[in-house]
Specification:
This protein has 144 residues and is mainly alpha-helical. It has helices spanning 5-19, 24-45, 84-89, 94-101, 112-124, 127-143, and strands at 70-71, 78-79.
Length: 144
């Protein structure tokens, strides 16, 4: 008897989990992603042209920004950083995306780990002081 799509998806995710540690949330996300990929492949195999997409992302916006990834609330794809180029495909700017999903204007649209690395790099290079000096210098030029 042939395996169902659900069984195949479960086996694939189980094999992935055997080689890499995954949180239960990551396993759930992977299972959904694999399921819809297999479903899409099956429909193409049977000659059905309709694309099968997962339902709208049912994730709280604040939870879409995770340690190693950020999930686009528009399409459900995972990235290290949401770029303006990607958001343009959805007809949004980063400012509009933040407003639509309730993020603050200063909230980085990148994975928490990437944000932390950038912050540490800026601290290591003393970028705060460099920026402060540049602003002071620019203020003196405008006053003249």
């Amino acid at each position: 008897m042939a395996k169902s799509i659900t069984e195949m998806a479960a086996e694939i995710v189980q094999a992935q989990a055997a080689h890499a540690s995954m949180t239960p949330e990551e396993m759930k996300d992977a299972l959904e992603k694999v399921f819809y990929s297999l479903l899409s492949l099956k429909s193409k195999e049977e000659g059905i042209e309709e694309t099968i997409e997962p339902a709208a992302v049912s994730l709280a916006p604040k939870k879409s920004i995770q340690r190693n990834k950020i999930i686009c609330m528009e399409c459900g794809k995972e990235f290290k950083q949401l770029t303006n180029r990607h958001l343009k495909d959805h007809g949004l700017t980063s400012r509009e995306y933040r407003k639509k999903y309730g993020f603050t204007a200063r909230q980085p649209l990148s994975a928490k780990e990437l944000t932390a690395r950038r912050r540490q790099s800026a601290l290591d290079r003393n970028m705060g002081e460099v920026l402060k000096k540049a602003r002071a210098k620019r203020g003196k030029k405008k006053a003249s």
